[in-house]
Every structure is written in structure tokens, then in C-alpha cells.
Design goal:
The chain contains six helices and no strands. The longest helix is centred in the N-terminal third of the chain and has 13 residues.
Length: 155
């Protein structure tokens, strides 16, 4: 737990700045290890909810620009910790859809930027975590469709 910071987030090494991607890595690993009780969920989820910007998008660190990929990195942790309701979901979905290229398809990091596979996947995964748009449910820990996880784990 040496990578957890005063703000509740996690850095890549002790003392490093909290980052949403690292938060996901730590929360998912703790979930898989059955050790989520080590997390101060309210403090961490407060930090994650504070990543939502005026645009409705999420950023990975304070004072940085919003980016569609953080729809996954932040939402997956909030989902694992059962606090998806701590952000404005409608505004987030609107932000993600504003990043969609209506002509060529795909989703970019921010509106008007070039769409790519990375941001398309994480944008759709984020929308799926929110249970929107008829997308199949995705496992927030493994980033796989729940039906695939169930089949692999024989649940």
C-alpha cells in the first residue's frame, strides 16, 4: 500500500503523483487478490469523481485535460468499488459521443481529434460500464465482456 497517496489515489511508485490509470491497476489487482478491504474507498472514489471536468469528460490527474480513455480508467475503479453514481453519467456519455467521428466512425480522445482504436475501445467500454446504448456488459476488472468471463470461469 506504499503507492497510495494522501489524496486516496495511487502513484506508480511511492511518492509519485496519483494517476487514474495506476488507480485502476491497483484496484483491479486488489480485487483479484480479494483484498479490496485495504482501500479507503470513499477517499479514493472522491478523488476519482473529482476527475470529471466541466466538459463532462474525465481526466487522469488534477489540472489535466479530459480524455475519453479515462472513461475506462476512472469508471472501472468506481464500478469495482460500487460508486458509479458519484459522477454525472449523462454528461460523461455526452462527452464520449461528442468525440465520435460521425463520418469515418470511431472515437477520439477529445472532440475534433482523430479517432483511433484505443479511444474507441475505452469509450465504448466506459459507456458499457454505465449500462448504456445496448452494449453488452463488460467486466470492470478484466475489461472483457461479462459473458466471456463467465464462460472462461465456468460461472
Amino acid at each position: 500500500m506504499g503507492c497510495q497517496n494522501f489524496d486516496g489515489g495511487y502513484g506508480a511508485t511511492p511518492g509519485n503523483e496519483s494517476h487514474a490509470g495506476q488507480v485502476f491497476t491497483c484496484v483491479a489487482a486488489l480485487q483479484l487478490a480479494g483484498a479490496l478491504d485495504k482501500v479507503d474507498a470513499d477517499l479514493l472514489c472522491w478523488w476519482l469523481a473529482e476527475r470529471q471536468t466541466a466538459s463532462g469528460g474525465l481526466n487522469g490527474r488534477p489540472e489535466k485535460l479530459q480524455d475519453v480513455c479515462y472513461s475506462w480508467w476512472c469508471l472501472s475503479s468506481l464500478s469495482i468499488l460500487k460508486r458509479l453514481h458519484w459522477i454525472d453519467q449523462d454528461r460523461l456519455v455526452e462527452f464520449i459521443l461528442d468525440c465520435q467521428d460521425e463520418i469515418d466512425g470511431g472515437i477520439s480522445d477529445r472532440p475534433e481529434d482523430q479517432a483511433d482504436v484505443y479511444h474507441t475501445f475505452f469509450g465504448l467500454a466506459g459507456i458499457s460500464l454505465l449500462g448504456r446504448s445496448g452494449l453488452k456488459p463488460i467486466d470492470p476488472t478484466l475489461a472483457l465482456p461479462c459473458e466471456v468471463v463467465d464462460r472462461l470461469c465456468h460461472r
